[in-house]
Amino acid sequence: MNKTNDQQHRVTVQYPDTKKGSVVDNYFGVEVADPYRWLEDDLSEETEAWVISQNKATFDYLDKIPYRNRLKKRLEKMWNYEKSTAPSREGKYDYFYKNDGLQDQYVVYRSRVIGESEVEVFLDPNTFSEDGTTSLADLTFSKDGSIAAYSVSEGGSDWRKIFIIDVESKQQLEDALIDVKFSGMSWLGNTGFYYSSYDKPDGSELSAKTDQHKLYFHQLGEKQEDDQAIFGGTPEQKRRYVRGTVTEDDKYLLISASTSTSGNDLRIQDLSKPDSAFIVVLDNMDSDTWLVGHLSNQLFLETNLNAPNKRLVSVDLSRPQPENWLDIIPETKHVLSASAGGGMLFADYMIDATSRISQYDYSGKKIRDIKLPGLGQAVGLSGKESEDTLYYSFTNYKTPSTIFSFDVMQGESAVYQKSGADFNSDEFESVQVFYKSKDGTSIPMTITHKKGLVLDGTNPTILYGYGGFNISLTPTFSIVNAVWLALGGVYAVPNLRGGGEYGEDWHNAGITTTKQNVFDDFIAAAEYLIAEKYTTSQFLALRGGSNGGLLVGAVMIQRPDLMQVALPAVGVMDMLRYHTFTSGAGWAYDYGTSEQSKEMFGYLKAYSPVHNVKAGVSYPATLVTTGDHDDRVVPAHSFKFAAELQAKQSGNAPTLIRIETQAGHGAGTPVSKIIEQYADIFGFTLFNMGIEQLPELENQ
C-alpha cells in the first residue's frame, strides 16, 4: 500500500438536513431530549425520504474512492470458489449445501450415497426471489425423511414463512405457515412439528415490540389457525423466547423458556402418554441448561447451574430435578461445549478461545482425545445415534475451513473436503498475545497478518470486537478478512469480557453496571497494538456488529483520538430505548434497562452512543452500516446515531451511514450484497487512512 500522512480528506460531504423534534423524556426526574425520535417510525414517508437522501450522500462519497471497484473485483475473485457443507442423512438421501462460487444463496443438493457423483438439486433458494434477498433459514425433515419443512426469510427479516413439501415430488403439501419468528422446527414422527412465534404486533412488524413467545404444534393437513399453543399465551407462562425439542425416539418433548438471552427454565412432557402433564425440571432462570443427548429414560443436559464453566449431567426422568442430577462430565477450569452422536458424547473445551475435544461414552468414561490439525476452532461432531461417521470442520484466522470425517468407533479423522479458497496460509501468521486492561485483567487477543510484517506503526489495522451475551469469538477464516490480509492489513480480535471465552464469570464481568469493562478492554487492545508498533491511531479502524456495534459506538465517543476510522454495524446505539423495540427487552440481562432503577438509567445514559455525541469534538471517519429490514436491532438506532454525529462533528472526517435495502441483521444476506458492502467498508477505511494507491490490486 502507498501511504501518506496527509490527514486532509479529499472529499467534501454535503449532509442532508435532518430535522430536530421536541420530544423530551423524563427518567427519574431527569429530562432527556430525543430530537430524532421521528426516525423510529419506519412506516413514515419522511423516514423513507431521509434514508434515500442519506444513501445518496454516502454513495456519492464512496463513488469517489479510486480503488473501490477494484476492491470489489478482488473480493469477487477470492470469493469465487466452490463451497459446500458436510452431508446429513435424512431417510434414504444424503443432503448437503453447496455454492458454486458467487451464487447469492447456497443450494441444497442430495444424493443416495455419500460422495456419489450423481447429485440433484433439492432446493435452490436463488429461485425464491429475483433479487436473491429471500433466503433459506432452516430445513428439517420428518423422522422417516419423507417430508421436509423449510423456513424462508424475506429481505433479511427475522419473521419467517414455513413451507412443507414431499421430498420425492418436491411438491408443496399445504398452505405455508406465516408470521413465525425465533423458531426451530422439531418433528414428532411424520405427523407434524413444534414451532414458536409471537402474535403479530400492532404497528410496524419490523420495529414494534414482540413480547410473548408461544410454542405451537402443527399437525400436517390442518390449518395454521387451528394450531394449538402448547406453552405460552397466559400471564403465568409469559416468556420472550420459547423452544420445543423432541427427543430422537419421539418419546419426550422438552420446552425451554426464558425472558432474557441468559437463563432458562425447563420442563418435560412424556409424549408416549396422551395428555400427560409437564414435569418441571427447572423452575427458575438462574442457569442455561440444554439437551445434548437421550438414552432410554435418561437425558443428558449441558448446564452452568453451579458450574460457571459448564458440566454435562445425567437426568433420570423419574426424578429430573437438579438435586438428583449426576455429573457425567464434571466442570473443569475450561469452558465446556458438549455434543452427542454415534452413541457417544463429545466434550469441546475452549482453551484461550481454541478447541480441544475429548470423546466419552454415556457413562462418562473417557474414550480418547481427538487430534486436531492445530490451534483453531473445530465445529461439528454431532448427529443421530445410529450414525457411525460424524463430521467436523476445522479453521482459524489464516486457515480456510477443512471438513473432516470422523470414525466414531476407531477415533480416526480423515480429510473429507479441503477448501478451494485461493489463499496460501503459509504466507501468513496468527499469534495470540495477552495484554492488561485498565483494571489489570489479562485479556487474550489474536493478531493475524502477513509474515515478515514490519512493526513500524504504519500497518492498516482492523480491531474487531464483540464482548457480550456470553458469545465467544473463536478463530474463524473469512474470505473478506483474507482480502484484508492479502492487501497487507492486520486483523486483531481480542476476547473481551462479556463474552463466554472463560465461562459465566467472564460473561458477568461485562454486563449491566460492569459494561464499562468491555469498553476498557477494547481500548486497551488498541493501545497495545499502538505500543507494539503494529499500527498507530492514523492507521487503526475499529469494527463490530450488533452488540459489537454498540462497542465501537461507545469507544469512539469515549476515545475519539484512538482511531482513524470507526465502523459500527447494526449497532445498539440508544441504550435508553432499546428494550422498547421488537424483542429487545430480552437483552436486559446484559444491559439492564433505563426503567429498572435510577442507578441503571444513569449508567446507561453515561455510555449510550446516541446520548453522548458532543458538539465541538473531532470524531473519526465513521461509516455506520445497517439494513432497512433489521427487526432485531432496528435501524433507528443507527439512524439516530448518524444524525447526531452529522449535527455535531467538528472535524473534517466524514460521518456517513450506509443503509442496505431489503436486508436485515445479517443472516441470509446475498453474496452480491456482502461483496458490495465490504468493498465499500474497506475502501472507506483505507481512503480515510490516507492510502492513496493499492498496488496489490494491480494486474489482478
Description:
The protein has an 8-stranded mixed beta sheet with strand order 32-33-35-34-36-37-38-39, with helices on both faces. Strands 3, 4, 5, 6 and 7 form a 5-stranded antiparallel beta sheet that branches. Helix content is 17%, strand content 33%. The model has no long low-confidence stretch (mean pLDDT 94). With 700 residues, it is an alpha+beta fold. Strand 6 (107-111) and strand 7 form a beta hairpin. The protein has 11 helices and 39 strands. Among the domains are: 45-77 and 423-697, Alpha/Beta hydrolase fold, catalytic domain (Rossmann fold); 83-124, no CATH class; 332-420. It starts with 23 loop residues before the first strand and ends in a 12-residue tail after the last helix.
Structural class: alpha+beta
CATH fold node name of one domain: Rossmann fold
Q: Largest beta sheet, briefly?
A: 8 strands, mixed
pLDDT average, as an integer? 94
CATH class of one domain: Alpha Beta
Helix content: 10-25%
CATH superfamily of one domain: Alpha/Beta hydrolase fold, catalytic domain
- Identify the CATH architecture of one domain: 3-Layer(aba) Sandwich
